[in-house]
Amino acid sequence: MTQLDERDTTDAAEQAASAASRGSAAYRANPYPVYACLRDSAPVCRLSPPHGVDTFLITRYDDAKAALTDPRISKDMYAAMDAYHTIFGDSSVALDDNMLFSDPPKHTRLRRIVNSAFTPRRIESLRPRIQEITDELLDRLSADGPVDLLPTFAFPLPLIVICELIGIPEEEREEVQKWCAVVARTGFSKEDKEKLAVAEGALRDYFADIIARKRREATDDLLGALIRTQDEQGAMNDGELLSTLWVLLFAGHKTTAYLIGNAVFNLLTHRDQLREVLADPELLPNAIEEVIRYEGSVENATFRHALEDITIRDTVIPKGSLVQVAVASANRDPERFEAPDTFDVKRQGLQSAHLGFGSGPHYCLGAPLARMEMRIALTSLFERFPDIELATSAHEAEWLKVPFPAFRGLEKLPVVLDPSRLLAD
Ligand code: HEM
């Protein structure tokens, strides 16, 4: 490489790092060129995100996969309390005392308890009900004009499913959803943190209350099962139960909701691929895996931190630094996926390869449920409305703008369900 090339590369990497740190508008609209640049020139990149805690961003597939399983890169929030407080404030601690923010042996204990209640049988038993909820939501959609599929379909479906699974009564769901939306949308400004604290306080009070009610009156749902396990084995304290409820509720619907949106968007903007899926429905499961690779709903895995100085590709990540794994970047790494920027519903060998559900001990516990929901949602939507179109052009799509987000998803998804009805008017 010439000296000029080296300088160009460094400049490009610096610009990419700065765009990622600031969460610039262009980067939010299309983060993939920034990730490509970082993978090439700064694959373990020091960022200064708006939350003020220096973070090392890992963008290559091999490094990402290794980091997600590296015991030196911890998920234990109590071992990084100062950073955690700076980023999220006090209010998050009580909600995050769950498997997602812990290391073994605590992680193993908490995950095993949920796994024992979250059995494949319980998941499979949800199938007819998921279909029913999907059909009811589709019945309510109006084909007479453009509709935004996110609030009318993509969000309510997984929210109703996870609420029914947990056992949150129907009349209480709107309130819970409202607070969850605040948590999902908060950035790192002082004002945002205040809003976050209010929402998290409300959720904490709500969870404490519903746990108390279900303890008084045994129920057959997942929360009832968790309470029984807790009472019989004493394996989880009250705080852990409350935050387990939170992680299931939050992780269990935002991710799936945004993924339904990303799937519909990408299938509608790759019409030839959608035609292939419609002609051969057996392709759908693979198409869903391809959406998770190409435009998954989790852009960055959750926070980790270095328990010791760790060197990855000549970059030293000092002990105590925050580490983020850019799953969206790893899934577009040309070293791992051929033509990674091509959306190809027939791509082979995806399920065990993409990192869209994470990897290692924290691999998504809800993956089987999410896959089932995705299949039912997409099959039903496209069967009912085979001519569905985007109501605006693809480049007008509004992607989530929160800087440095965990999620990759759309703000809106306006579609026309049946263009012939519009033309007829
Ligand atoms: C398409 C939808 C989904 C996607 C893309 C997704 C993605 C992920 C990812 C990437 C992780 C790992 C995070 C990390 O290592 O930092 C994760 C963990 C987790 N997910 Fe999901 N998820 C989805 C749906 C669900 C559902 C439906 C549930 C529950 C019902 C769920 C529950 C969890 C839980 C509890 C964890 C933490 C596991 C642990 O720490 O051991 N997820 N998910």
From TrEMBL:
Gene3D superfamilies: Cytochrome P450. PROSITE patterns: CYTOCHROME_P450. Transmembrane segments: none annotated. Residues 1-10 have a biased composition (Basic and acidic residues). Residues 1-20 are annotated as: Disordered. SUPFAM superfamilies: Cytochrome P450. Keywords: Heme, Iron, Metal-binding, Monooxygenase, Oxidoreductase. The keyword Metal-binding applies. Belongs to the cytochrome P450 family. This is Cytochrome P450.
